[in-house]
Amino acid sequence: MISVEEARAAVLALASPLAVEYVPLRHAAGRVLAQDVVATRTQPPFAASSMDGYALRRDEVEPDALFKVIGEAAAGHRFDGIVKAGQAVRIFTGAPVPEGADFVVIQEDVTRRGDLITLGHNIGDKDNIRPAGGDFKLGQTVSAPQLLRPADIALLAAMNIASVPVTRKPVVAILATGDELVQPGETPQADQIVASNSFGLAAMLDDLGAETRVLPIARDTAGSLKQAFTLAQGADMIVTIGGASVGDHDLVAPVAAELGMEQSFYKVAMRPGKPLMAGRLGKMAMIGLPGNPVSAMVCGAVFVVPLLRKMLGLEADITPLMSGPLAVDMPANGPRAHYMRARLIDGKLYPDTRQDSSLLSVLAVADVLLVRPVNDPARTAGEMVSYTPL
Fold it and tell me: What is the distance between the alpha carbons of residues 353 and 359, in angstroms, rounded to a whole number?
């Protein structure tokens, strides 16, 4: 067995960031910006009013001052004249400030009669003008790599970026194996269960930007497995679930080896997830996950997610270890790192009393994995321990 750290390093060595492609801005949300982009304009492109009111000259602002209104400026419709002494322009939010004006008096501080306005007594010093380039300027850069959020999309739109360079979505084929499995919606026989791992992993990887392909369940025969591997061709990564141990019905490793897999490692000193393997099968990275549902999901978070992030050009660690106090005593840990399902309540960590790797109901209510190192000594309530958010 190798350590979790050694296994993660070996997994990350299986792939590199994928190629760049251009997508319309409308479809760039949730994608990873692959190259820096540069603003093609200044925002705002002109000094603009931030309020509805009257544009005039600052040096003439005083209580009871009288001005003649000579025109109007609205968003998309500037006033083309020049504001001179004793003059004002009716202006609305977003409109360009007319030449000669450098102050906007809000309409609540003005009394108007016909074309004349009189200023009030509590105007203040705020000019109510958004300066040209106050948001960003021509040539300003949005740096890659970064996951594009809705706010980023709005910024790129304002910068007039219509086509966005993003990392190609990694194609991940997910292959569940086992005669005991049926698909959700089917009726299991007395000795069968419903396949859950494929769907949980697909949801996990979809959320991170993968294009996942859930393959038909492979039966416990060499022929069925070979056919399934054929269906995975063209993927960047294949994730198998189950059949990675050494029992008589665990055929994934020998079949993959027969098809040319170059194995990087087999077995990791962790729980849940000891029977884990990884390598390369042709052009695909391959990770063989254990069949127990919690083992598959935990190993997916610890190994598959970092590899996917590397393919996208992002930092591998999405959830670095954090520290928090234990809420209860815990016995010493054994020779494998233990990723315990736990809850963080009022700043304290409560590991679930049930840590069997088949219990999805425990994983579903957990919000963190409490990470115990190899041979970690017994811990008492209040001691600081490491955890990673789920």
Answer: 12
The residue length of the chain stands at: 390
Nearest to 374 by CA among 300, 302, 270: 270
Give the residue from 20, 45, 46, 43 showing the smallest Cα distance to 31: 20
Q: What is the pTM of this model?
A: 0.85
The pair phi, psi for residue 281, each rounded to 5°, is -125, 100
Distance CA 57, CA 55 (A): 7
Cis-peptide into 44, omega within 30 deg = yes
- For 331-389, the pLDDT digits (tens) are 999 999 999 999 999 999 999 999 988 888 999 999 999 999 999 999 999 999 999 98
363 - beta bridge partners? none
pLDDT by residue (tens digit) across 268-327?
A: 999 998 889 999 999 999 999 998 889 999 999 999 999 999 999 998 875 678 999 999
Strands 368-372 and 348-351: unpaired
- 113's CB contacts (< 8 A; 6+ apart) are none
**Cβ distance 250 to 244 under 8 Å?**
yes
